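Table S2 (text version). Query chain:
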Amino acid sequence: MSGFSKSIFTKYSRPGGRYSFSPATKSWNCADIRAKIETQKQIINSMFSATKVGIYIHLPFCPRLCTFCGCNIRVSQNNEELKLYLSALSKQLDLYLNHVNSQTLEQKSLECIYFGGGTPNVFSPEQLGQFTQQVLQKMADKNISPSQDFEITLEADPRLDVKDHLDQLSLFGKTKISIGIQDLNTKVTNNINRIQRPEHILKTIEEINKNYELHADLVYGLAHQDKDSFVSGLKEVISTKICGISLYPLVPVPWQQKAQKAFGENSNIDAEKKAEIYFASAELLKNESYFQLGFGHYTKKESKLFQSFSNQTLFRSPMGYHKSLHYTLIPLGVSSIGKTDYKSSEQSWLVQSEKVYEKYMHSVLALEEVPFIRAHELEIRDKIQNEVNILISTRNEIDKQTLKNLEDIDQTPTDQRVKGLIIDGLLSFDTTNSSVIITELGRHFLKDICHSFQIQSIL
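Corresponding structure-token output:
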């Protein structure tokens, strides 16, 4: 990898905030909105006033705990519990729609439905299909209809049946899938309480690849991993002609430490070995003609994501990369996060649903209350920060006007921000356009570049 050194990777292997959505600050300016009904109504009407909307649906159920995972999950496959949860999701959408003003509901387009988890394919194909039909009907009743480019994304566990789920969902629109592989080395996956057969995973990928756009996630930094083994598994995944691959670094989270210590070995590999795995994998993907969208995210050039990158409509959100730049995201489910598109809404909000499963269910089904627990109304600084992060994560360039906006609100000169990054080869300066360019090496350090361009009052 040109310009790469272990010292550079180690230098920039540091904690940092999210850059996939605003606010980056740890404190939200509406920390508790459970009893603030009018604020809830404002947020809901702001979401539904956008011309383009998407829906994120969190399905937390998993057949067993993977100890590396920091997602909001619930270990259960009880069918009655699954059905009750779908009822709660439907009720939550009803609660939103009951608060929407009639003047807000002009003709709008539904851009996407995203099923995240957890393990969404714990639900049966029929359950997901019937629920999707319910959602589409409820939205259509309020003049919100699928757009021409409407798509459904399903996160799935390839150890479970998944093809029938995709066939069912594809009845409603273009459907793509994101699967978690983590590693094909069974010593590594057994240690994180994830029992899987590599030959079954690869066969599942090959079967799905015939009809659906498929992306796979792998995790590096787990105990027992080494460069040769990880790259060998990655080669097998690439051999299936898969459309997209994402490499995620292991991020230990405090709330999982007890579970991690209860299962297997918890001594994860150091930063230097993580660097070896990551850059050997990145070199392989480059040689196999995968295009790097951003840090750890790769796609084939015939994919919709690459087309969006080329057309400058690519967007980065907590769910990953998407083909549509601006739309509002409506949250459904425990811990789900939603946002309003500040480009098309007078008020711009980030909002989160109740994070505790039992509290979420009680709030929606027993109290019939909108389950929001906190919100943040985006201020000017948040909007500028959001623009900066979008440019860094999807354009590889920060233009002159955005740099000026950043300086005006933060009073930090651009050259002060970029000096060290230019020395290390992560950035260059375009004197003709007065813009900052992210280099090929810099694309592996987008989080660190975003951190360097963080508005100081947000830190």
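Notes on Table S2: DSSP finds 16 helices and 19 strands in the chain. The CA atoms of residues 293 and 394 lie 7 Å apart.
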